[in-house]
Specification:
This protein is α+β, with helices and mostly antiparallel strands. It is built from 6 helices and 6 strands. The strands form 2 sheets. The protein has a 3-stranded antiparallel beta sheet. It has a 3-stranded antiparallel beta sheet with strand order 2-3-6. Helix 2 crosses helix 4. The radius of gyration is 18 Å and the shape is globular.
């Protein structure tokens, strides 16, 4: 798809999309790939769906959009300055998104539990396709549900072990985690 429709690819350096069909999205780079001006926000405004065909639920980057909306504390913003090359054009960007601490087990998502939970609530659908399955959900329904869960329990997405790691990081560095404190520690970061 990327090679067949290169003109339809968004220019956000990480987490970009190829938009096929009649509906078009703004292709200019956004500062935050999960913020209010991101493609995720636009797909939600257009009442879109997410489909996993050939990928498992664990490939679900929509989770980062929810984390951004809820301003979670276990990931922190980091700036990545760079240049987007678009043919002869060079677009300078200061890309910003939440990274996780480079601490083993600090931000591990409980993908199996999250998938089962959405299925049981009638928000995630599965259809057989060849030897596998296609998973899909409507963004608005999952966003509303996950946002409610995160507001009740900020660590809702995480495994029990990861929750414990995050709580130790909060004790050591405060909540929310901050770029300055984490980058100056020996812990570092991980995308």
């Amino acid at each position: 798809v990327r090679k067949k429709y290169p003109y339809a690819r968004t220019k956000t350096p990480v987490f970009n999309f190829v938009c096929v069909g009649e509906q078009r999205f703004d292709s200019e780079p956004t500062m935050n790939p999960f913020g209010n001006d991101s493609i995720w926000a636009e797909v939600e405004r257009q009442d879109g769906w997410v489909c996993f065909w050939g990928a498992g639920f664990h490939a679900n980057t929509f989770i980062h959009y929810i984390e951004e909306l809820c301003d979670i504390g276990y990931r922190y913003h980091k700036k990545f300055p760079g240049v987007v090359l678009d043919g002869e054009n060079r677009i300078k960007v200061d890309f910003l998104y939440r990274v996780r601490p480079l601490v083993s087990g600090a931000v591990d998502y409980d993908w199996d539990r999250l998938e089962i939970d959405l299925e049981r609530r009638g928000l995630l659908f599965k259809e057989k396709s060849g030897l596998g399955s296609v998973l899909f959900y409507r963004i608005k329904g999952v966003r509303k549900y996950w946002e409610e869960r995160i507001r009740d329990d900020e660590l809702f997405f995480l495994t029990p072990e990861s929750r414990a790691s995050v709580m130790m990081l909060y004790e050591k560095y405060g909540r929310p985690l901050q770029n300055e404190a984490m980058e100056q520690s020996n812990d570092g970061v991980q995308g």
